[in-house]
């Protein structure tokens, strides 16, 4: 009896302790609703960013090889590359003599420019499955990216698959690089005749076009053919082949403008920005009226984060009639935004809209600048009306017009259009965000907070969700410091919205 009494007293004490933990929010009973999540571990945060079907099973168990490979594939398809590699490595541990995990890992590393590791994994795959054509091609491609051209030539020429389009293509471009031009023409012609991949066919035709262009200009110098082939290498993404070939040309002819331009373009695309600037500056000295030179020079300066020189070069490219001009305006708009030259940025964005009105989303950034940065909401209304006319009946058209009207203090019209946007698309997060702004401007903060919350929840992992969180939290802070705030909101217990991880 005494033992039972002691047990009951102990249970009562434990009950009081647990209740106290719950009341005072002591772990594991921390408060925090959907707007104020409890602190997460790094692993939990990473998993929270994954789609639901990619999160780990809650029940711990040993996964099979196919399960690891399938999960790795799903992660890879959703661009979670480091997590995909981890899954493939787990699969490799289960079946160390299977080449597939090494192939999968190598392909990701080739895609993400981790070339030495990609080479290592493709070689491991080949030790387990010697002579596999796909693996050999991937190894050769990796060696090209490392500019190990002699090794790549040996790898590609060691294949004897006469009916494989990819094999014929790479043997053809290697022959072109090393000056075996007649064999290159034969192999590339066979590449086209075999068919299969339209991309490879198009690339092969590019090189054949270079040979034809050279042959048309009878009596051309060898340096001219090398420059034409260097252009083809650059246009097909083989920059590491273009660069050394063009260096050969420049050694022979230092005043060959086109060779300098293509060299600069190749350096730009391999993110060697100072080398790109040096080459393109030389091209500019040789011909100060070439629009292409200034365009690539502007992009190279941008890569160096030299925004002012980038803008100056792109403006010069535009004045020299670079085509397509929309590419210049798109980049200038971004650069002027970073420079906080909002008027120039808005004008450049408007130029983009004028040139290409196919996508209604092109209107968003200039309208945002007119409303948020330039305090010119009437210009935003004009743009929104243009979007409404050119994209009739779309939810985003109603949203943009409503947003501009709210910015212009036309609240009744704005509310009508924003509600129509939601009727057409109940999940349009931006419309809820703008309705929150509408009710905040009207001084009805309870409704504003509700709409910000809705926008935040719908806009998970995007800029709208984060903007909603910022506006929600700013409004909460304002209400706490303002005695005349909306009395219907209990600001003392309101949670803050956490911006979504991106």
CATH level-3 fold name of one domain: Serine Threonine Protein Phosphatase 5, Tetratricopeptide repeat
CATH homology superfamily name of one domain: Tetratricopeptide repeat domain
According to DSSP, the number of beta strands is 0
Specify the number of helices. 26
Shape: globular
Rounded to the nearest angstrom, the radius of gyration is 31 Å
Helix content: over 70%
Taking the alpha carbons of the first and last residues, their distance comes to: 61 Å
Major sheet description = none
Strand content: under 5%
CATH hierarchy class name of one domain:
Mainly Alpha
Class by alpha and beta content:
mainly alpha
| Residue-averaged pLDDT | 87
Helix-strand topology string: HHHHHHHHHHHHHHHHHHHHHHHHHH
Low-confidence stretches: 1-48
Short description:
This protein is mainly alpha-helical and 502 residues long. The protein contains 26 helices and no strands.
Walk me through the structure:
The protein is mainly alpha-helical and 502 residues long. Among the domains are: 68-159, Alpha Horseshoe (Serine Threonine Protein Phosphatase 5, Tetratricopeptide repeat), CATH 1.25.40.10; 294-356, Tetratricopeptide repeat domain (Serine Threonine Protein Phosphatase 5, Tetratricopeptide repeat, Alpha Horseshoe), CATH 1.25.40. The chain has 26 helices and no strands. It has helices spanning 2-23, 42-48, 65-77, 81-94, 100-111, 115-128, 133-145, 149-157, 165-177, 181-194, 198-216, 222-235, 239-252, 257-269, 273-286, 291-303, 307-319, 325-338, 342-355, 364-373, 377-390, 395-407, 411-424, 429-441, 445-458, 463-481. Helix 12 packs parallel to helix 14, helix 18 runs antiparallel to helix 19 and helix 19 packs antiparallel against helix 20 (364-373). The two termini are 61 Å apart.
């Amino acid at each position: 009896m005494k033992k039972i009494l002691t047990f009951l007293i102990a249970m009562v004490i434990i009950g009081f302790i647990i209740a106290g933990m719950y009341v005072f929010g002591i772990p594991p009973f921390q408060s925090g609703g959907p707007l104020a999540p409890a602190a997460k571990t790094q692993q939990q945060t990473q998993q929270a960013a994954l789609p639901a079907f990619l999160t780990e099973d809650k029940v711990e168990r040993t996964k099979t090889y196919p399960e690891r490979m399938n999960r790795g594939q799903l992660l890879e398809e959703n661009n979670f590359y480091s997590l995909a590699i981890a899954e493939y490595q787990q699969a490799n541990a289960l079946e160390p003599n299977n080449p597939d995990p090494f192939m999968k890992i190598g392909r990701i590393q080739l895609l993400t420019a981790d070339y030495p590791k990609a080479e290592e994994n493709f070689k491991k795959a080949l030790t387990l499955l010697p002579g596999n054509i796909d693996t050999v091609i991937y190894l050769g491609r990796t060696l090209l990216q490392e500019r190990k051209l002699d090794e790549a030539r040996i790898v590609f020429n060691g294949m004897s698959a006469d009916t494989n389009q990819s094999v014929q293509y790479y043997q053809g471009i290697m022959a072109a690089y090393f000056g075996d031009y007649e064999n290159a023409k034969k192999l590339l012609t066979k590449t086209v005749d075999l068919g299969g991949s339209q991309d490879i066919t198009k690339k092969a035709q590019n090189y054949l076009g270079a040979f034809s262009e050279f042959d048309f200009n009878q009596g051309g110098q060898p340096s001219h053919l090398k420059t034409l082939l260097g252009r083809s290498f650059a246009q097909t993404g083989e920059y590491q082949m273009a660069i050394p070939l063009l260096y050969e040309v420049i050694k022979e002819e230092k005043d060959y403008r086109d060779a300098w331009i293509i060299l600069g373009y190749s350096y730009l695309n391999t993110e060697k920005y100072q080398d790109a600037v040096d080459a393109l500056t030389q091209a500019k000295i040789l011909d100060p009226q070439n629009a292409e030179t200034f365009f690539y020079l502007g992009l190279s300066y941008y890569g160096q984060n030299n925004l002012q020189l980038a803008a100056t070069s792109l403006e010069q490219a535009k004045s020299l009639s670079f085509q397509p001009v929309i590419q210049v305006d798109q980049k200038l708009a971004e650069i002027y935004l970073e420079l906080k030259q909002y008027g120039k940025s808005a004008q450049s964005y408007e130029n983009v809209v004028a040139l290409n009105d196919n996508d209604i989303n092109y209107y968003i950034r200039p309208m945002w600048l007119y409303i948020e940065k330039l305090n010119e909401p009437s210009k935003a209304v004009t743009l929104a009306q243009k979007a409404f006319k050119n994209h009739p009946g779309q939810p985003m058209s109603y949203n943009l017009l409503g947003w501009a009207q709210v910015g212009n203090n036309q609240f009744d019209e704005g509310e009508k259009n924003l509600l129509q946007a939601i009727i057409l698309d109940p999940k349009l997060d931006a419309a809820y965000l703008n309705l929150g702004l509408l009710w905040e401007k009207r001084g009805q903060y309870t409704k504003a907070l509700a709409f910000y919350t809705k926008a935040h929840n719908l806009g998970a992992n995007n800029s709208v969700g984060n903007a909603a969180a910022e506006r929600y939290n700013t409004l909460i802070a304002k209400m706490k410091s303002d005695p005349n705030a909306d009395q219907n909101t209990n600001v003392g217990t309101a949670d803050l919205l956490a911006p979504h991880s991106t």
